[in-house]
Amino acid sequence: MRRVVITGLGAVTPLGAGIKHTWRRLLECGSGIVSTTGRGAQFETIPSRVAGLVPLGSREDGKWQAKDWLPASEERQMALFAQYAIASAQEALDDAGWHPTAQHDLESTGVTIGSGIGNLDEAYNTSVAFHEGGYRKVSPLFVPRLLINLAAGHVSIRHGFKGPNHAATTACTTGVHAIGDASRLIAYGDANVMVAGGAESCIHPLAFAGFARARSLATAWNDDPTASSRPFDKDRAGFVMGEGAGIMVLEELEHATARKANIYAEIKGYGLSSDAYHMTAPREDGEGAYLAMRQALRHAKATPEMVDYVNAHATSTILGDAAENTAIKRLMLGQEGKEHASDINVSSTKGAVGHLLGAAGAVEAIFTTLAIQHNVLPPTLNLENPSPGFECNYVAKTPQDQRVDLALSNSFGFGGTNASLCLAAFR
Ligand SMILES: *[C@@H]1O[C@H](CO)[C@@H](O)[C@H](O)[C@H]1NC(C)=O
Ligand SMILES: *[C@@H]1O[C@H](CO)[C@@H](O)[C@H](O)[C@H]1NC(C)=O
Ligand SMILES: *[C@@H]1O[C@H](CO)[C@@H](O)[C@H](O)[C@H]1NC(C)=O
Description:
Blueprint: E1 4-13, E2 16-17, H1 19-27, E3 33-35, H2 41-44, E4 50-52, H3 72-77, H4 80-96, H5 103-107, E5 109-114, H6 120-133, H7 142-146, H8 150-159, E6 165-166, H9 174-187, E7 193-200, H10 205-213, E8 244-252, H11 253-258, E9 265-274, H12 287-299, E10 309-311, H13 318-332, E11 346-347, H14 350-353, H15 360-374, E12 376-377, E13 400-401, E14 406-413, E15 417-424
Helix pairs in contact: 4-8, 9-15, 12-13
Bound molecules: 2-acetamido-2-deoxy-beta-D-glucopyranose (3 copies).
One 2-acetamido-2-deoxy-beta-D-glucopyranose binds next to loops.
C-alpha cells in the first residue's frame, strides 16, 4: 500500500485566520468563543448565546476578510463555508509549495472537502423570499451557493486540479472522513496529491435554534463566553457552535520526497465505525469510539501503548465526553506504560474554538499534526474539576511539553458515525 504524508496545512478558525496565528493563540490558551448578543433579535430568543466566531479583520493581523482571499465577483458566488475552504486550501497549497502546471500533475491532484450543514443562510433567505415574492425572487446563484460539494468544486476550479473531487457530509465526523477517504484515494493510486478537509459556517439563528432544541448547546455560560466550552469538566453543559475550515495537503510519500517537500507527519491509520444505536445520543460504553480507534490502530499496525496523545472529539456535552472517556480508557488502560489512567494523554481543543461541526475533525487533525511536529500537547481550556471517572491527563488549561510520535484524532457525528485518524511522526 502506498504511504501518505501531510505536506501542507491551512486553517481559518475562531482563533484566527491562518495556521500560525491559530496555533500560537491555542498554545497561549486563547479563546475564540464570544457572545452572539448584538447579532440580531432572533439570536436573543435562543437559550444559548455563545459561539466560536472567526475574528474579522485583515490577513496581516491573522483575521478574516474575504477580499484578502478572493475577488468580489467570486465572493458573491460562494457560501461563507466555501470561502473559508478556498482560503485554507490556498494557505495549505502555499505551505506545501504545490502549484503544478503540468497536465499529469493536475490530473493526479484531487480535492475532498466536506461540510456538515452547508449554507443555511442561503436556504433560509431564499425560502423566505420565494414564499413572499415567488419565482423571480430566487437568485440564479441559489443552487451553486447552496450545494455542499461546491467548496471542493471551487478549489479545483481555482487551481485546475483534475483528480478526484469529492465531498463527505457526515455531520461532525465530516472533516475526519474527508481526510481519511482522501488518504485512501492516494493509497490506492487514484491521486498523488489530495487537498482535503472540512469547512463550516452556519452561525445562523435557525442552526442555533435547532441544536438548542436538541438540547445539545451550552446555555449556562451566556455571561461568560470564554468559560462556556469546558470538555471533561464537571460543569460542562453542552457544546458551543463554531465556524471555520481546516485543510491539509496529503501526498504520496515518494512523490513528496522526490520534490523535497516538508513532511509534517504520516497518516498511518483510519478507522470508521458506527454506534448503531441512536440518532443523537452516544452509547454509554463508547462502543463506536472504541471500535474506530481500534481500527485506526490496526491499520497503523500500532498498539494502544504506542499512543502518546489523543485529540478527543469531546464537545463538552455530558454524555458524549463520558462515552468517549470510557472508550479511551477501555482501549488503553492496562497496556504497558499505561497502568494508570493518568498515563493517558488526552485533550480537547474544543475548549478554545468550540465545535466546528463539519470542520472540527479537520481542524483537530491539524492540531494533532502540529502536536507531533512541536512535541507539545495543546490544552483543554476551562477544565477546573474533571467529572468522576475522568482520571486521564487531560492537559488541563495549559499546554504540556511531551514527545509525540503517535497520536489519534477522533470525530463522532449525529447518526452514530464514528471515525479516528492515526497520525505518526515522520522522523
Ligand atoms: C440573508 O438575509 C440577511 C438579512 O437580510 C442578510 O443579512 C444576509 O446577508 C443574507 N444572506 C445571504 C446569503 O444572502
Ligand atoms: C459515535 O457517534 C455518535 C453519533 O451520534 C456519538 O453521539 C457518539 O458519541 C459516538 N460514540 C462515542 C462512544 O463517543
Ligand atoms: C503523558 O504525558 C506525561 C507528561 O505530561 C508523560 O510523563 C507521560 O509519559 C505521558 N503518557 C504517555 C502514555 O505518553
